Amino acid sequence: MLVPPSARLPSGTLTRMSLSRFLRKYLGGPYLRMNKRIWKHLPAFLASWRPMRRYGCHLQRLIQLRATRRQSVGTFFFRNRPELELLIRLLDQKLENSTVNLAVLACSKGAEIYSISHAIRSARTDVRVRLCAVDISKDILEFAEAGVYSLNTHDGSGAPGPGSLARDGDVATTTSRDQPSSIFERMSSGEIKAMFDREGDQVRVKPRFREGIAWHLGDAGDPGLVGALGLQDIVVANRFLCHMHPEEAENCLRNLARLVKPGGYLFVSGVDLGVRSKVVGELGWRPVTDLIREIHEGDPSLRRDWPLQYWGLEPFDQGRIDWEMRYASVFQRGGERSEVK
Fold first, then answer.
1. How many other β-carbons are positioned within 10 Å of the β-carbon of residue 193?
2. CA 313/CA 271 separation, integer angstroms
3. What is the pLDDT of residues 122-180, one digit of tens each?
4. Reported pTM
5. φ, ψ for residue 43 (rounded to 5)?
6. What does the alpha-carbon distance between residue 29 and residue 38 come to, in Å, rounded to a whole number?
7. Residue 7 half-sphere exposure, CB side, CA atoms within 13 Å?
8. Residue ranges in the chain assigned as alpha helix (H)
9. Considering only CA atoms, which of 61, 69, 70 is closest in space to residue 32?
């Protein structure tokens, strides 16, 4: 096929692109393996030094460039407690008997939406909350809506087939799917008793925390999402954008931003920091700095996996000029301003 002259690349550019691909394919692997070994053998006190942090960031960028990204349904109840604390602080600004619309995108097995429901309905019984949970997987959405989980720990690699959740043992299999450890590991026994009714080796979310949740099968990147759900006071889009390639994640994040009302809030952790900073900066949204460090460090699995996994979260560095924009996990859309800083 003939290529029009305007679309042709300069020969020097083509050579550089070919050389870059060659280097990534044949030299990138050995270089990355060597540096992974170096990092794993670094003493803990060295890893916390600023020069070593920069080295860790360089290493993670290489890993992100080469990684095969895939979505995961692994999650935890009360995964990031400071996030829930900030959510309640934002709701504390609402008048008594006011109504709040809150949507959770990529709700997965339901742990996040039920944790939010528990937090709100335990702290602000006077606030009417319309909760909406969205996921792209029909099976996972049905599992989440049922609100039944197994207390038994299985190998988390299993993935049930379509329509299989009704068969014996599939509650246990799906509960453990993509789980490196128990979905309940961040809950105390008292919290488990407060949130669930026990039925043998299974637990069911209590009705007061299940009621009022609307479940929607949908794609977070679908431009029609705002028409289907309507504008929201709070949108929670946590821990799934990191599994997308950066360009796809940017487009998805811009789409999700359209769901937020003027003056509303977007919770967005578990995403490449460069992607998040770029998009919210272009939108002109304001980072919420209340509990910024606590939320950034509030999910131990993300912090623990840095820099050797593409989803790992770099250490909080208040010495950066852009630290507020880079490390904030919650942003407010322009409009009516909040008292939370």
1. 12
2. 9
3. 998 888 899 999 999 999 999 999 999 999 866 544 444 444 343 445 899 999 999 99
4. 0.85
5. -60, 150
6. 14
7. 4
8. 11-22, 28-40, 44-47, 50-66, 81-91, 111-123, 138-146, 170-176, 189-195, 207-210, 225-229, 246-257, 273-283, 292-296, 300-304, 323-327
9. 61
